[in-house]
Design brief:
Length: 277
């Protein structure tokens, strides 16, 4: 609308016929877009999430605007968006981490292998933007708190629906359960965040209903450390030693010096000599 040389060729629904300015319907769409972006950005944690929300809902608004101008423009824009979505996948976190990736066949075996080990497991889906943004946060936690008695794991419930059903984590975007963190020991759930109500929807981590509605919890590192008492669990779990560490300790014990010991036979001979004398 504001590009000279192009706006003159666009149809307009303004009364004055000025095709280089927005009509009242287009202004309404922009206002509605601004309201939606502001609501969604309340839960955004990083700058990338804020920018991502702006671009996502701007594309939706552009689809409506292009279809209003010309059906051909709308179809062309939708085609370009689909091609971009297929070819340009979101980046995957590839940084350092101490995380065990489970499958539907290995998760139960790993969680129940040692009853002394506490697991913090993330249930995620690759298509979820929230899970993608949370990946570096969870990796950083694993680098700080991983030890013999406290381990970190992840499982993609988008691929393993049976695991999601067993641990009662819904992969549906409407449930807002992704990502879900479960604290487990010997295969038994100790705690989970976010919590789930009777309708299967995630509820806030806040303490009052009023705050729950206004300020949904964000997966910040400080919140996770506080809610799961990771500092306290880490101090306890550091004292747990693995089998390999115990074997190394036993091997490093000082051996007794057998050179100073005299044979039994020689001791008896010495005693007999003393009696003869």
């Amino acid at each position: 609308r504001k590009c000279p040389g192009l706006c003159e060729h666009l149809p307009s629904q303004r009364e004055d016929g000025n095709s280089c300015d927005f009509d009242w319907r287009e202004v309404e769409i922009f206002m509605f877009l601004s309201a939606i972006v502001m609501m969604k950005n309340r839960r955004a944690i990083t700058l990338e999430q804020h920018i991502g929300n702006i671009f996502l809902f701007s594309k939706v608004a552009n689809v409506v605007l292009f279809f209003r101008v010309d059906l051909r423009f709308g179809l062309l824009y939708v085609t370009l968006c689909v091609v971009f979505l297929i070819t340009c996948k979101p980046p995957i976190y590839m940084g350092p981490e101490y995380i065990k990736y489970f499958s539907d066949k290995t998760i139960d075996e790993e969680l129940e292998r040692d009853s002394r080990v506490t697991w913090l497991v993330e249930f995620y889906a690759n298509w979820s933007p929230e899970c993608q943004c949370f990946a570096p946060v969870f990796a950083d936690l694993s680098l700080k708190y991983n030890c013999t008695g406290l381990k970190f794991g992840k499982i993609d419930i988008g691929r393993y629906a049976g695991v999601a059903e067993k641990y009662k984590v819904s992969p549906s975007p409407l449930s807002k359960q992704l990502p879900s963190l479960l604290l487990l020991q010997a295969g038994r759930e100790i705690m989970r965040r976010p919590q789930v109500d009777n309708k299967g929807r995630a509820v806030s981590w806040s303490f009052t209903e009023w705050v729950k509605k206004l300020c949904p919890f964000m997966f910040l590192q400080e919140n996770i450390i506080r809610e799961f008492n990771l500092n306290e669990i880490f101090e306890k779990c550091k004292k747990i030693k693995s089998r390999s560490e115990k074997i190394e300790e036993l091997g490093s014990l000082p051996q007794e010096d057998h050179d100073d010991e005299q044979p039994i036979g020689t001791l008896e001979e010495e005693s007999e000599c003393k009696k003869d004398k």
